[in-house]
Amino acid sequence: MATNKDIAAAMTVKLEDIFETLPPETDFQQGIRRAPARNFTLSTAETKLALKNALRYIPEKWHARLAPEFLDELLTRGRVYGYRFRPSGKLHGRPIEQYQGKCLEGRAFQVMIDNNLDFDVALYPYELVTYGETGQVCQNWMQYCLIKRYLEIMTDEQTLVVASGHPAGLFQSSPQAPRVIITNALMVGMFDDQDNWHRAMALGVANYGQMTAGGWMYIGPQGIVHGTYSTLLNAARAKLNVPAQADLGGILFVSSGLGGMSGAQGKAIEIANGVGIIAEVDPSRIQTRHEQGWVSQVTADPAEAFEQAQGFRDRKQGAAIAFYGNIVDLLEYAVTHAIHIDLLSDQTSCHVVYDGGYCPQGLTFEQRTDMLRSDHDQFVHLVDRSLKRHFELVRTLTASGVYFFDYGNSFLKAVYDAGVTEICKNGRNSLDGFIFPSYVEDIMGPVLFDYGYGPFRWVCLSGKAEDLEKTDQAAMACIDPDRRFQDRDNYVWIRDAGKNKMVVGTQARILYQDALGRMAIALKFNQMVRAGDIGPVMLGRDHHDTGGTDSPFRETANIKDGSNIMADMAVHCFAGNAARGMSLVALHNGGGVGIGKAINGGFGMVLDGSRRVDEILKRAFPWDVMGGVGRRAWARNENAIETVIAYNQNRPDTDHITLPFIPDEGLLDKVLAERLEADDSDG
Ligand SMILES: NC(=O)c1ccc[n+]([C@@H]2O[C@H](COP(=O)([O-])OP(=O)(O)OC[C@H]3O[C@@H](n4cnc5c(N)ncnc54)[C@H](O)[C@@H]3O)[C@@H](O)[C@H]2O)c1
User: Fold this and answer.
1) d(C-alpha 98, C-alpha 84), whole Å
2) Of the candidates 339, 295, 105, 121, which has an alpha carbon nearest to the alpha carbon of residue 218?
3) Is 168 helix (H, G, I), strand (E, B) or coil?
4) What distance in angstroms lies between residue 46's CA and the mean position of ligand 1's atoms?
5) From CA 466, how far away is CA 485, in angstroms rounded?
């Protein structure tokens, strides 16, 4: 059996080469949000296994010192984070020249990772959580250090493989291959549930990546502002008869959550010139959004919140009001006082309701955090009770004409899991969906995803604001605002993006575009890099998109041919992007909605100005999107069929997507009725 000495001698990438001596214990900066203790349920034997697993990263000389420390982290926090290996002070995505590396991609990914862990950007930076309550860059700081070292030494003839945060190593490949391949929390079907995932996380063998956390592509809450803005605009057009050219002046939107993604809601409604009241139980998150200017008013009094909102509505002035308190209490007030709300949603982290994502009515944020640790069973009981009341209030409000939609946070599923079967269309289970629509089912799906519009994003790796300004201008020049109303919305969005001051962290931008729009902008940017007009650029997207995500309660909620329970598309998207040479490809379990409820794939693409990259952009960008439009067309979605017909006609030499024939409904009804009649008469 090899000794630890043999093992150390056989590795050139290891912690003892990064740290000459054991780094000191972490000096936690006050005022930085900390993750709640995760529910610790490991047996003694499993606890020993978790310690053995964590010590795999640690040279033997530090085992005696770190074994009790890791045990303490596990017992008090529910995970081994290896805090002392975190670089001290604030991390942030620095200009790319400041990073070491043998290839541009290796340096670019370090920028992205550090941005994901920035105190100003990440939800729980010390616990490596970027957003969505549990979405982590990797599991622990040992992995962070090793990934960083691998990225520093990686050449363009190698690929780094990362399995649930664990850097499995560098393997020989080629400049045409991805530089990094990431998977997160891909669990074998029969174990693919919350309990087994919890156990795997505590054992140190799984990481929940959400998407842009574990796929290193987060760009702060801006990433979701454009999608939220489009959702609100199109919800109002579809349900409140707001004309396509008008803004949302005078319209009231009520929701909850000012966290990672949900923090975009205030900004989005204000940009659309509507009025938003967003409930939030955690004062630190309200403070962050207030300091950023993403909410303009703060009050803990529901009466005051609605009064202020009415003033802004009367003046047709955009405003975002943070209500410091529980969303259920805010809705109780609205129901009791018969206040009219136009648009209603919820963006608490319902994908992890029992892990702290949803604060039950009656508990303050601090009490919720304490109870999570001290009495988990009682916490579960209170969450279920609160969700039931929440559901009743939503039902009362919708009965009075309010338009409610699920915001992709598994709210409807969480209510169902709390025991409310009335929320199911069939009154029994979730197979036929829920009585309230998800925003994808009603709005984003038919209006955007079926055409291929999705969250194209970029980061100017130079860190220069002027590069971002130049890319904004270049992207705007690629859009024809007169083609469709969606293009007009996107044009206005990018025209005003700088003015709306949305950058938090790296110099990044989001811009919804369709397949060929994304390709055209990507090629334009690469040409600008080649000409030396701007520094290198990272392209990516999130999971809230046409092609990369199979998520029946969200992205694929408007797929009605029964295939919404399949995950083939996300896997094909991931594999196809790898085959076409995207710089980074990632595949995750659970993004946005929780373990076992979605599979989502993403990418990162580094623009270095080369012709090689031009070729990748031409092959990979249409694929990344059109695979999804094709699947939506096959599910008989009308707008997707139109989009594929045009695509097949425009690109006959390169692509060909299979389209469905549509049978006559009457014919099928007749055939079925005849057979049933015949069966009846047969006895
Ligand atoms: N709409 C989208 O496009 C989209 C995109 C990504 C994710 N999501 C989903 O939205 C949810 C929120 O994401 P996030 O990144 O903002 O998560 P987050 O955990 O950072 O934020 C959720 C916020 O809700 C607050 N909260 C919890 N219970 C509350 C209650 N009862 N009343 C008031 N506030 C309460 C929390 O304090 C927290 O700040 C997640 O489920 C996520 O998967 C939506």
Assistant:
1) 24
2) 121
3) strand
4) 32
5) 29
- Is the shortest distance between the CB of 510 and ligand 1 below 6 Å? no
Which residue is associated with the tokens 């929780």?
594
Report yes or no: 657 and 635 within 8 Å, Cβ to Cβ: no
CA separation for the pair 280, 352 (Å, rounded): 17
Q: How far is CA 22 from CA 5, 31, 86, 146, in A?
A: 18, 26, 12, 15
3-class DSSP state of 214: coil
The finding on whether 282 has its CB within 6 A of some atom of ligand 1 is yes
Are the beta carbons of 142 and 15 closer than 8 angstroms?
yes
Those residues of the chain that have pLDDT short of 70 are 683
Distance CA 16, CA 352 (A): 37
| pLDDT at residue 683 in the model | 62
494 near 475, Cβ under 8 Å?
yes
Identify the residue whose C-alpha is closest to ligand 1 atom 9: 409
For residue 315, the number of C-alpha atoms closer than 13 Å in the C-beta half-sphere is 9
Gap from CA of 140 to ligand 1 centroid (Å): 23
Nearest CA to 554 out of 598, 607, 619, 500 is that of: 598
Determine whether the shortest distance from the Cβ of 407 to ligand 1 is under 6 A. Answer: yes
Nearest CA to ligand 1 atom 31: 359
Q: Is 276 within 8 Å of 253 (Cβ atoms)?
A: yes
Q: What is the pLDDT of residue 573?
A: 98
Distance CA 79, CA 308 (A): 43
Place of tokens 């695509």: 647
Question: Measured from the CA of 262, which atom of ligand 1 is nearest?
Answer: 16
How is residue 141 written in tokens?
């700081």
d(CA 279, CA 258): 8
User: With contact defined as beta carbons under 8 Å apart, do 172 and 48 qualify?
Assistant: no
Tens digits of residue pLDDT in 423-447: 999 999 988 889 998 888 889 999 9
DSSP state of 506: S
Contact in structure between 118 and 125 (CB atoms under 8 Å):
yes
